[in-house]
Amino acid sequence: MVLNNSHGNGISSRAEVPVTNITWHLSEEYISGKFRVNFWIDSIEGVPPAAVDVQIEFNTEPTLAGPVNANTLAPISKIGGLQTGLLGFTELPAKTTFFNVAGAVGFIGVNGAANVKPIPPTAIYLQNKIGQNFPEYVDPVSKKDAETPINTTWTKLSKSPSWSSKDRYIYIKTFSETYGNQSADFWSSREVHHIRPRVYGGTNDFNNLMPVLTPNHRLITAWFNNY
């Protein structure tokens, strides 16, 4: 489970005296081919509100540069009997995408007074079609980021272009000329990663390559198995 808004925001219903305070958080998970956004009530101080209504916006984008597509999910509502725990959830079909979650939550007091607060946008996450977060990795020498250049609309090829030990040698030579010589231990503990995988149209061009520690590279490769 990925906690997208786990800090919890205090909400005052302003409906009773003394004022009722509500804290809550969102969580997101993958279940049976869907992204599910859960709304949790963490604490209620004072008289529980008579009703709550949550509107969730699931914003998706193919790259970190956009464009952004706003998906308004089904509302989460409850009248009476409000208590701590899972209030409800809303969901949409899972796909590989950059996304964040935002929206609004409103509480109605027993005297009818309403209080609506925004759900602040979460950080932007990159998930594949089975809800796995991308294993972030930045090369400490070149400062290349394995995630930032990813586009979630790449098409899979029927066959990957070749990659040989000679290609690796040429890359290491060019890397050393560009960023300085690295130790033998540096290269023995790393594999050369294609930022855009060859099977999704990536080439052996220097700009599409970066060194990644072998365990991290295996995690990235596994993530792309469900791209």
Structure description:
With 227 residues, the protein is mainly β. The chain contains 3 helices and 12 strands; from the N terminus they run ββββββββββααββα. The strands form 3 sheets. Strands 4, 5, 6, 8, 9 and 10 form a 6-stranded antiparallel sheet that branches. The chain has a 4-stranded antiparallel sheet with strand order 1-2-3-7, with no helix packed on it. The chain has a two-stranded antiparallel ribbon with strand order 11-12. The longest helix is centred in the last third of the chain and has 15 residues. It is elongated. The N terminus is likely disordered.
Shape: elongated
Residues in β-strands, percent: 35-45%
Mean of pLDDT: 91
Could you state the order of secondary-structure elements as H and E? EEEEEEEEEEHHEEH
Radius of gyration: 23 Å
Tell me the structural class: mainly beta
Taking pLDDT < 50 over at least 5 consecutive residues as the criterion, the unreliable ranges are 1-18
Fraction of residues in H or I helices: 10-25%
Measure the end-to-end span: 19 Å
- Would you report the number of β strands? 12
Largest sheet: 6 strands, antiparallel
Summed up, the helix count is 3
What is the chains' assembly state? single chain
